[in-house]
Write a structure and sequence with these properties.
Blueprint: H1 3-22, E1 43-50, E2 56-60, E3 65-69, H2 73-82, E4 88-98, E5 108-122
Parallel strand pairs: 3-5
Antiparallel strand pairs: 1-2, 1-4, 2-3, 4-5
Length: about 130
């Protein structure tokens, strides 16, 4: 191996290891761990993200559809910063990637890749 080849190899390995070290998969909204899967391409939704008892999810506005997430640390924290998780939701634009197959009438599991235009709103309660 020539000196030049060795330098290129070492630089490549350093970049690869650095990228892996930056990959924090504890937050699904980081965009680092959420990508196209065998279940389909990522897609945009306008919806309402909320923390629920059994799982977090996004109600897709304009559809009778809830996509479920494993939760997102940053989004959850925005809600917790305002108060009780049962009192607030987040309205906004989300890019989500499927983690399960879409089936009519079933909740689809997704990963939140990114979000923008987030607004904290008071959760409406049915009395």
């Amino acid at each position: 191996m020539t000196a030049r080849s060795l330098i290129i190899f070492v630089a490549f390995v350093g970049l690869t290891v650095g990228a892996a070290a930056d990959k924090d998969c504890t937050k699904t909204g980081s965009g680092k761990c959420c990508a196209e899967t065998q279940f389909g391409k990522c897609f945009a939704v306008h919806g309402r993200y909320a923390v629920y008892v059994k799982n977090n999810g996004i109600w897709v506005i304009g559809e009778k559809r809830l996509v479920t997430t494993a939760g997102d640390g940053d989004l959850d924290q925005m809600i917790y910063n305002r108060g009780d998780w049962q009192d607030f939701d987040l309205d906004g634009d989300f890019t989500v990637c499927p983690r399960s197959r879409f089936e009519q009438g079933q909740m689809q599991s997704v990963c939140v890749q990114s979000y923008k235009n987030i607004r904290v709103t008071k959760r409406l309660r049915n009395h």
